[in-house]
Amino acid sequence: MPTPLERWVEETAQLTRPKNIHWCDGSEAEYHRLIQEMTQAGTLSELNQKEYPACFLHRSDPSDVARTEHLTFVCTRTKDDAGPNNNWMAPPEAKEKVGALFSGAMKDRTMYVVPYIMGPASSPYSQCGVEITDSPYVAVNMRIMTRMGKAALDRIGASDNYVKGLHSLGDLSPERRFIMHFPEERLIWSVGSGYGGNALLGKKCFALRLGSHMAKEEGWLAEHMLVLGIEDPSGRTTYVAAAFPSACGKTNLAMLVPPASQKGYKIWTVGEDIAWMHPGPDGRLWAINPEAGFFGVAPGTNSRTNPNVMATIRKNTIYTNVAVTPHGTPYWEGMDGPPPHEAIDWQGKPWTPDSVTKAAHPNSRFTTPATQCPSMSSEWENPQGVPISAILFGGRRASLIPLVYQSFNWQHGVFLGATMTSETTAAATGAVGVVRRDPMAMLPFCGYNMGDYFGHWLRMGQKLTNPPQIFRVNWFRMNAEGKYLWPGFGENLRVLRWVLGRVHGEVGAAETPIGNLPHPSGIDVTGLDVTSETLHELLTVDWKGWQEAIAGQKEYFQKYGERMPKEIWQQCEALEKRLGQ
Ligand code: GTP
Ligand code: SPV
Ligand code: MN
Prior knowledge:
This protein is α+β, with helices and mostly antiparallel strands.
């Protein structure tokens, strides 16, 4: 008797007609064989093996370099269940339309069956998936990003309890590119893209879009959040989760290196992109990192901004769309030192510092194993997860949003998350630098109606007798000349220290209409190039600006009609009242 998985693989082969089928066991030998095959085929090239052992470069199709939100659909039975936050197609229509693209799509290609676990192998909160793909690049990246191979296959066994993901590169044409989610069937269909978030189906498609849908049904949270532990000089470790939109600083904060001035503090990384959080028997919220690797942004990464990741990506790393120097080492804008005199750019063309184009694509990335990161927490694979004391919501905003402030309570905290806005980045196709509403940094990733999602967050608060404190942060305030007001990166620890002080009831705050703000003395700026005027600007409530912001918040919430919880409207009205309108 074939197992349900064997039956699905067989059915899929009937549809896609691959030349052969390879079941991935996740072994190192298999990984190296796939790498070698890709190197021979020219889809991967070797970097300088002396300086960057076992590191390789992949150049993707120039039209396939970022997530494509307009081609991403949530196919629930009713349109309302997907909500105005998602593109929707009826499941039968989606199956017909995209099924036609899968028909014969793997002709002359190998079909890889990639079983994987999201989460530590022994965690009760982990879940299995299987991705069927015709891309060996996906197979090797999945081995870095998840617990892939035999352990997953053993866990799935003869059960039907896994998320099915079918992926084909198709012809890579954006006209025939679709990323389809069927949360009610725990099924993903992705065709026409080989790019990270579109193709590594365990990540955004499963761990967030399907995950958030499961989490609502089962009473937990699947979030676009990093998780870190802050060890203070007394040896006490406090865990914080933080939701920032794509390319807004999660990886950087997760592995922050305390500057010399912050003696006795240590930051321990649990996760840097996704958190699955469950209420524990103690009434606290416990988080696991469902991933096993980092798919991080290269540009702007250097040994000052993120020394831990620079150490991590020196071996066993796959680089995508970075430039290469004549020495065969990777290069991107904002790396250490001066740019090389010449390089080969991300499209394989000659480049010099005088070129008008960028050497690396702004969304060029590295895929690297978490185990190589010097700041990994000893708890990062704890099957129970880590207890979260604070949640930060942060965006990229040049104005209005203060450096940090705290919500009055859980409901107000949900409101702070729900009203998040951020300037768009190169992580998704489309214009960059446009302010858009991105509630909880989940706009592109919430697999159901966001009105229901806010309701779910509110209900979670009722379940937790000891909920995390909720904060908003913004590292990206600018002055009139477009210069950042706050130094960011390692110095963000100074803000985290205020958060710790609040969580442990050790520091005061000023109550304002938008929330509790630090007194200027609450943020230690000694030794920084931050004047008291600048600090004042970072911590001031712009009354007029906030009064004007309310209209935009209301307009956005109105889109969700009946699905919008009344508690959120109450928060809106209460803010309006506090601002004296
Ligand atoms: P995704 O992987 O897309 O989810 O991104 P992310 O949220 O992990 O962002 P990441 O940490 O990779 O940072 C993205 C960009 O923001 C990089 O170019 C960083 O150098 C920059 N960045 C991160 N933290 C800060 C900060 O505190 N201040 C400033 N000015 N820039 C930052
Ligand atoms: C993001 O865009 O938030 C990422 C990269 O982390 S991707 O995996 O492409 O979604
Ligand atoms: Mn991300």
